[in-house]
Design brief:
The protein has 345 residues and is of the alpha/beta class. The chain contains 15 helices and ten strands. The chain binds (3S,4R)-3-hydroxy-2-oxopiperidin-4-yl beta-D-xylopyranoside.
Length: 345
């Protein structure tokens, strides 16, 4: 048996024996499995933090790196929470994703209501990216430089027209953001992140065109697929076709915000189906060489954005409200433990 394969077999076997979480299984195959972190339990709940470090090797701030949180006033940045996450990641040898620099949501009043001229808006974007990326230079694995700039119903190139940045600067804001980001931390992986861009269709075509152009100038490294999905989701040819055309450009993909929401109350069948959906997405990512990570948008149903956002839906994550692993946890574990040839990486 080859040494690498032998070590994988041993680690998986030991992992199953001592039950030390998904993280060791992921690491045995050099896979990145992550979660979003909510600051409230992070500050108050030791069990939450213990699970984070045991189960995952990537974290992302659910809100604390966003513009309104980290740059609440024109001349004031607030780094306390983001610093705490970066320290936690480093103490626990985890990678950290930075989410997100330029987005149309969660912007501070001073920016939205500031009547900025185009030049002032470009200066604000530049200052923000340079300051935030500069502070964490060398410490952030991947940055979602721009989030959700493409909209199916947008302008001829499908840019989202109701975005503050589009209105203030024009569609060039995306390229400008990537140019500034590349200079600010040349070692960080730079991502364009969006929702509903997994399947090969009109929206992902627009994303593809955008990242192709950025890529010609070596300004982008990957595309983030948020994947806030429901149980109806199934991986199909349209997902493989899309990830492979990105691979052909030399771009990686990370699944950046995975959750699988259920109609409430969820019964056993729904939980079993949810497990299959998580397993399906895991196997897909493990089998596509340019799929670099799966990051869940939280891990316990106690803290999830779903119930506030999708009426009547919830229970979207892999631990229940009491931190008991759900069937979905078992499905991820199983897909990580399988020694299927071609799936090892
Ligand atoms: C969500 C957070 O989970 C919520 O706590 C917050 O109130 C709103 O934003 N796409 C994204 C994420 O890129 O940043 C969003 O996170 C979920 C949708």
């Amino acid at each position: 048996m080859q040494p690498k394969l032998l070590s994988l077999v041993c680690t998986v076997f030991l992992g199953l024996l001592v039950d030390d979480g998904l993280r060791s299984l992921a690491e045995a195959r050099e896979f990145r499995l992550g979660t979003a972190v909510s600051m409230m339990p992070f500050r108050r709940d030791d069990q939450y933090k213990a699970i984070l470090a045991r189960e995952f090797n990537v974290i992302v701030g659910e809100n604390c790196f966003k513009f309104d949180a980290i740059h609440p006033q024109r001349d004031r940045y607030e780094f306390r929470d983001a610093d705490a996450l970066v320290e936690f990641a480093s103490a626990n040898k985890m990678k950290i994703r930075g989410h997100t620099l330029i987005w149309h949501n969660q912007l501070p009043e001073w920016l939205k209501e500031g009547n900025l001229t185009r030049d002032e808006a470009i200066a604000a974007l530049t200052n923000h990216i340079e300051t935030v990326m500069g502070r964490y230079k060398g410490k952030i694995w991947a940055w979602d430089v721009v989030n959700e700039a493409i909209d199916q119903a947008g302008d001829p190139q499908h840019f989202r027209e109701d975005s503050f940045w589009y209105k203030a600067i024009g569609p060039e804001y995306v390229t400008i953001a990537f140019e500034v980001a590349r200079k600010a931390d040349p070692g960080a992986r730079l991502y364009y992140n969006d929702f509903d861009n997994e399947a090969k269709d009109e929206k992902s075509d627009a994303v593809y065109r955008l990242v192709s152009e950025l890529n010609q100038r070596k300004l982008v490294d990957g595309v983030g697929w948020q994947m806030h999905i429901s149980n109806a989701f199934k991986i199909g040819k349209e997902h493989r076709d899309n990830i492979r055309r990105l691979a052909a450009l030399g771009l990686e993909v990370s699944i950046t915000e995975l959750d699988v929401r259920l109609k409430l109350p969820a019964n056993r069948d729904a939980l079993a189906k949810q497990a299959r959906t998580y397993g399906d997405v895991m196997r897909f990512c493990l089998s596509e060489p340019n799929c670099k990570a799966i990051v869940l948008w939280g891990f316990t149903d106690m803290y999830s954005w779903v119930p506030q956002t999708f009426r009547g839906e919830g229970d979207a994550l892999i631990f229940d409200r009491d931190y008991a692993p759900k069937p979905a946890y078992g499905a991820i574990r199983e897909s990580l433990s399988k020694l299927t040839p071609g799936l090892s990486r």
